[in-house]
Design brief:
With 127 residues, this protein is of the alpha+beta class. It has a single domain, classed as RutC-like (60s Ribosomal Protein L30, Chain: A). Helices cover 30% and strands 24% of the residues. The protein is built from 3 helices and 5 strands. The protein has helices at residues 3-8, 46-63, 82-95, and strands spanning 19-22, 25-28, 71-79, 103-108, 118-125. The protein has a 5-stranded mixed β-sheet with strand order 1-2-5-3-4, covered by helices on one side. α3 links the parallel β3 (71-79) and β4.
Amino acid sequence: MNEAELTAGMSVTPQYQYAQRVANQLFVAGQVPHDSQGNLVGAGNAFVQASQCLRNLNLVLTVHDFTLADVRKIVVYVVGEQEQLSAAWKATTEFFAGQVPPATLLGVARLGYAGQWVEVDATVMKT
């Protein structure tokens, strides 16, 4: 975690890095549905959680001088049934205004935090 990420509004994450830049690539950790205070957002709502994850991704990109146009691939991990996967995908397509980069929508058994239904991972590179 660095000072610029804190200033941008990311929550404090001891012993955890949101991202690391190497040349023209940004290695981004999976983004979780936490607000700037570290509180879980949207408990029980995959659409709200996906939206928060994507807003957090955008903050990390901005802090490290990247944009959404630099996202080359995303993976959206979702706990639950088809309804939750569909809700998370709807949030993703809305966030990217219908221009989603190559993506994988993946159902999983569980994620890292109690009540967490969605996490978003990204491959980021400037050309």
